[in-house]
Amino acid sequence: MGIHTDMDSLPVPGTRAGREGLAAILADPGKAVLAFDFDGTLAPIVPDPEQARAHPDAVPALAALAPKVASVAVITGRPAEVAVRHGGFAGVPGLEHLVVLGHYGAERWDAVSGEVSAPAPHPGVAAVRAELPGLLELSGAGEGAWIEEKGGFAVAVHTRRAADPQGAFEALREPLTGLAAHHGLIVEPGRLVLELRPPGMDKGVALTRHVRESGASAVLYAGDDLGDLPAYAAVDGLRSDGTPGLLVCSGSDEVTELSRRADLVVDGPAGVVRLLTTLGAQLG
After folding, report:
1. Distance between CA 215 and CA 213 in Å, rounded?
2. Is 225 a catalytic residue?
3. DSSP assignment string, 192-239
């Protein structure tokens, strides 16, 4: 496939590893995997996650880019079907081979079949869900916090609507960690959200598996939150094994750790879309 070699219109990664990753994607896009978080990366963060929708230009940008690369994947903590619905990914020309890995890879939806495959949920999730309302009421810190169920695979407590969102978040970390441990789960902190889920479910495991299955020779991963750090670590591991990679941070004022680890920081979902659009144009 012919590509333009002029990279002036593409942002230049701030690290050598990132520049090598971008160069590898440009040199052989047909062997590149491009993977993305959903909330905060392809979709703006909103107070109610049920109202989250992909940036209006995200799907067109992905559809233009997807046929030029080995694979495009969305890796999210949400149920796969919810991400597909909120993203508007189904039935889009150009996205025929899109894969959505939901619940941190426990679920897989592919556009070819339109079906979701998944294992049985961990029994600790149902037990935690039953005890959460009482714990929030007893703690007093849970006033204004609300519970999001994630298809039986995880449960999350959001504090964004509380009078003191950060204070409620910090006050709930310890009791929720204890509850999770009692039922064989872990707590994953995020942007004013604490998610309780089984160990071993993370975006790094999902990303590494998908890259290996795709036979990719280069990878890009874009995320915005602490839950994306395992995917960042997975890219670091792939780099160590000889697979170049580019780490992109969909920047925000709420999470700075990712921006410190990233090769390239863009301005939220709009910046991610601009990057994808420019990359698609470069690939011709």
Report:
1. 6
2. no
3. SEEEEE-TT--HHHHHHHHHHHHT-SEEEEEE-SGGGHHHHHHHHHHH
* 76-89 pLDDT, tens digit each: 989 999 999 999 99
- Cβ burial 207-246 (10 Å sphere, 16+ → b, else e): bbebbeebebbbbbbbbbbebbbbbbbbbeebbeeebbbb
Are the C-beta atoms of residues 89 and 98 closer than 8 Å to each other?
A: yes
With contact defined as beta carbons under 8 Å apart, do 245 and 213 qualify? no
pTM of the model: 0.79
Q: What is the pLDDT of residues 196-226, one digit of tens each?
A: 988 878 899 999 999 999 999 999 999 999 8
Q: Give, in order, the Cα–Cα distances in Å from 165 to each of 137, 157, 162, 170, 268.
A: 16, 11, 5, 9, 21
Q: Which of 8, 28, 37, 48 is catalytic?
A: 37
